[in-house]
Specification:
This protein has 172 residues and is mainly alpha-helical. It has a domain of 103 residues: MazG-like (Helix Hairpins), CATH 1.10.287. 44% of the residues lie in helices and 3% in strands. The chain has a two-stranded antiparallel ribbon with strand order 1-2. Strand 1 and strand 2 form a beta hairpin. The chain is globular and about 55 Å long. The structure holds magnesium ion. Magnesium ion binds next to helix 2 and helix 3. The site of magnesium ion (MG) has 6 residues, from helix 2 and helix 3. Pfam families: MazG-like (PF12643).
């Protein structure tokens, strides 16, 4: 979590904060216990990992709408503010990864506390993303379906398999 300074007083993470956020790992060196590397260049896959079915994106929208309504915070939660808040939360996620070097799938070597913190910051990003979509009247689940369809057209598996090139670099 990002350290807060006196000028950060206000609304953060959808909740009031004033001047006393938890300390961050700002400036910390590389992690003490380095992550194990995959053997022989093998790809580590998150085999068997799935999300639980609830809450849905609509559940998250509703929970955040109730949270915001109960606090009379809609006056602050306009699209531009929500966008900036979300970007700030992306920064807080980034802080957890900085100074570590490459991080393998499954986060080997991360403590439970670090994993919990990552879950919290990723949740902040998602909550603001969902509220931003709501306030912009974007039906996010349907938009995701359309975008995935577009991505499949832009990156046909038969053409791009194993390649990291951008779609503009492919020639028919
Ligand atoms: Mg946060």
């Amino acid at each position: 979590m990002m350290a807060t300074s006196g000028k950060d007083c206000g609304v953060k993470d959808g909740a009031p904060v004033c001047c006393n956020g938890s300390a961050s790992a700002n400036g910390a060196g590389p992690e003490a216990s380095p992550s194990p590397k995959p053997l022989n260049g093998a790809t580590v896959r998150p085999e068997g990992f799935t999300f639980t079915p609830q809450p849905t994106i609509e559940d998250i929208r509703r929970m955040q709408a109730e949270f915001t309504d109960e606090r009379d915070w809609n006056q602050f939660h306009q699209p531009r503010n929500l966008l900036l808040a979300m970007v700030g939360e992306v920064g807080e996620v980034s802080e957890l990864f900085q100074w570590r070097g490459e991080v393998a799938v499954g986060l080997p070597g991360w403590s439970e506390e670090e994993r919990e913190q990552l879950g919290q910051e990723l949740s902040d990003v998602l909550i603001y993303l969902v509220e931003l979509a709501e306030k912009c009247r974007v039906d996010l689940p349907q938009a995701v379906l359309r975008k995935m369809a577009l991505n499949r057209l832009k990156y046909p598996a038969s053409k791009v398999h194993g390649s990291a090139k951008k779609y503009t670099e492919y020639k028919d």
